[in-house]
Amino acid sequence: MYFADFAVGRTYHSPGRTITEADITFFSMMSGDWNPVHSDEVHAMSSHFRRRVAHGALGIAVVTGLLTRIGIFDDSAIALLDFREWRFCKPVFIGDTLHVDLVITALKPKRGGGGGVVDRQITLINQDGITVQEGYSAILVADRIT
Questions:
Q1: pLDDT tens digits in sequence order for the chain, 146 residues long
Q2: CA atoms within a 13 Å half-sphere pointing along the CA-CB vector of 135
Q3: Considering the entire predicted model, what is its pTM?
Q4: What's the burial of 19, exposed, middle or buried (CB within 10 Å: 0-12/13-18/19+)?
Q5: From CA 73, how far away is CA 84, in angstroms rounded?
Q6: For residue 81, what are the contacts with CB-CB under 8 A and spacing of at least 6?
Q7: Residue among 58, 61, 87, 72 nearest 118 (CA)
Q8: Could you state, in order of their start, the residue ranges of all structural domains in the chain?
Q9: I want to staple 14 with a disulfide (CB 3.0 to 4.6 A). Which of 24, 31, 35, 100 is the partner?
């Protein structure tokens, strides 16, 4: 989809994705964050969560992947502009299956045309329908070349 194709209030839903132990391990390797609540089952059992929990930033990374699986920005995305007012509402655990609900909240055309900013409310939801993360994100989107 291109900038002119979007409408404020329109909603989109991604397919699901199950979080695995490998996801947490790879994210620890990539980020360097080996906090024992993510990487040590014995330690995590004595934590607030009682088991290993995924990194909060891993949730954001999963959001970006699930957004691409919706497919609406495949040919038109120019640049991700921000994530803001992001909240980590509930933990994400190994075995959780997550999906994204996305709502278009604002459209701001670029001066001179050629696309604009699509503002989105994003909700990351687990298999039980519980919001685990949520916030807003803006993306710069091209317009269709005619």
A1: 999 999 999 999 999 999 999 999 999 999 999 999 999 999 999 999 999 999 999 999 999 999 999 999 998 999 999 999 999 999 999 999 999 999 999 999 998 888 999 999 999 999 999 999 999 999 999 998 75
A2: 15
A3: 0.94
A4: buried
A5: 19
A6: 117, 137, 138, 139, 140
A7: 72
A8: 3-142
A9: 100
